[in-house]
Amino acid sequence: MRAAFATAVTDLAARDRRVMLLTGDLGYMALEPFAERHPDRFVNVGVAEQNMVGIATGLAEAGFVPFVYSIATFATLRPFEFVRNGPLLHRLPVRIVGIGGGFEYGHAGPTHHGTEDVGVMRTLTGMTVIAPADHRQARTALEATWDLPGPIYYRLGKDDKTVVPGLNGRFTPGRAEIIRDGRDLLIVTMGSVAPEAVTAANLLAARGVEAAVMVVAAINPPPTDDLVRAATGVPLVVTVEAHSIVGGAGSLLAETIADHGLGCRLVRCGVRSAPDGRSGGTDFYHRVHGLNGPAVAETTLAALKRRPEARPQAA
After folding, report:
1. What's the pLDDT score for residue 278?
2. How many domains does the chain have?
3. pLDDT tens-digit profile of 53-66?
4. Which of 135, 134, 142 minimizes the C-alpha distance to 173?
5. Do 214 and 166 meet the contact criterion of CB atoms below 8 Å apart?
């Protein structure tokens, strides 16, 4: 999604002189189109993410729409207090772009793994959070939201080739997208791990289990009506995310199910364990955390076989 973002933000800057791009010494072989076309609105602040957000806050106060670009964990965790006390509290249009959510910087180790970013940003009331599933949806989401009031966090993957079947780049703020119908259960997925959810649905279909698949890219404000509608009447909802099971799509579904008294069970496929010293690429980490298609399918089948625990009767 990096190239899609670079192209989109470069085009936006050509249409609107308020658009600026700041980077924390990252984006080589990706951000050059913007730097070449708009050198007066491109700033490399160096490895100083807190200062980058502070500068962006001042630029937004002066009337600009600044995008700040870094790896997902550096874009959200290092400058968290600056984000909270700057663009959030002052309702300024700073756009935080976190690249490589989940395990896309696999071999760089856990310092570079974005497995808490969505949860952290969701705690900030007034922060729009968007996590596209592929590069086509990333482009659509950026076009649809870049000029919204207040701050935005975009969680973008690095892959500019893979396309999620059935999504066709669709994105509407506050809505979720059903990309596959099914009556037996609902799979809800977030971000660039979405192809694994589709693979799981295909494997389940081969076993006679029809799973609907929903892509949730508009995380905050959440697509509550769509989630309630899709989860009503199914016995099981499975969430798939390259993120901690706390704070991301799994938490969003748990909150929705509880808030609306839905009768379905929930299984969260996500990160449950701390780093153990092993290193590998994205596929390796997806296998370790049970996030590849076959693992999600097996987890789902096991959940379908388990009978719900009987509720204790009132005395």
Report:
1. 86
2. 2
3. 999 999 999 999 99
4. 142
5. no
CATH number of the domain within which 199 lies: 3.40.50.920
Give a yes or no: residue 204 inside a domain: yes
Within 10 Å of residue 265's Cβ, how many Cβ atoms?
A: 17
Residue 23 C-alpha from the chain's centroid? 20
Residue 1 near residue 138, CB atoms below 8 Å = yes
Length of the chain in terms of residues written: 315
Name the token pair of 239.
């969430």
Q: In which domain, by residue range, is 138 found?
A: 2-156
Do 195 and 240 fall into the same domain?
Answer: yes
Q: What pLDDT, in 10s, does the model give residues 128-146?
A: 999 999 999 999 999 999 9
One domain, residues 183 and 274: yes
For the residues of the chain, what is the DSSP string, one character each? -HHHHHHHHHHHHHH-TTEEEEESS--TTTSHHHHHH-GGGEEE--S-HHHHHHHHHHHHHTT-EEEEEEEHHHHHTTTHHHHIIIIITTT---EEEEESBBTTTGGG-GGG-BSSHHHHHHTSTT-EEE--SSHHHHHHHHHHHTT-SS-EEEEE-S-SS---TTTTT---TT--EEEE--SSEEEEEEGGGHHHHHHHHHHHHHTT--EEEEE--EEES--HHHHHHHHTT-SEEEEEEEEETTTSHHHHHHHHHHHTT---EEEEEEE-S---S----HHHHHHHTT-SHHHHHHHHHHHHHSPPPPPPPP-
pLDDT band of residue 268 (cuts 50, 70, 90) is very high
Listed range (233-247, 272-286, 287-301) with the worst mean pLDDT: 272-286
- 311 belongs to a structural domain: no
